[in-house]
Write the structure tokens for this entry.
Amino acid sequence: MSSVPITGSTKFYALIGHPVKQVRTPTVLNAYLTEHSIDAVMVTFDLLPENLQDFFNMLRGWQNCLGCCVTIPHKVKSFECIDSATERAQRIGAVNIIKRDSKGLLHGDMMDGLGFLAALEKIGVTVKNKNVVLVGGGGAGSAIADSVAEAGAKQLSLLEIDTNRQTTLMSNLQKTYPGIRIYDRLIPDHSIDILINASPLGMKINDPLPFPLEKIKDKIIVADVVTKPDITSFLKNASKAGHLIQRGREMAEAQMSMFVDFMGTPKKTN
């Protein structure tokens, strides 16, 4: 497959994070853009947190950039730097996609939760009336928690080592979705239907597992948001134990059409 040449009329998408070696979005999106002969390309920026505001100041004046994707650890802080956001992003307090308009104003949304549910649907799984355990309450974790609650999960156990973050997220969820039962710990006599790692654990070789899988006796769905390695140690162990697994790449890939729709597709090359 030949690539579309970069010219003076090429539009750009940025992806910001720190680190960025693990991201899959540029590979998937650039393949999509090439396949559809769209004159645009995504480039990555390994951006230190202290330079985030400077990046957004630059982005406002980057005339041929349509916007950016946001990955760890910038999703929460980026929400504070932009001009407006969707109601969903405001509930979550984080963004993973930002559109730049013709005036240089930045508008954000958070689609990790939608992508997670869309990936589950592809394997015929729904969270409705299910007992869900979620490890991690950062940007991606908050988005998944919001979507899981909105989709009608029966129960959510939110495991997060940052107690302030955990308390804030649980409070927001309970106000918005009063019908779901939310806990700050595992309830011993409650079964688990879906277990999700939304923390960074697994990105590094020596990371501990985010959850002790030996506690789970039944066969369940085990998901991970980490995209590199493709199969984390957590998912390897879960698969060996007979659980159905969902990789982080599947959540990321499920967001591609959402990304293109939100950003607006640039013109095809002739």
The longest strand covers residues 11-17.
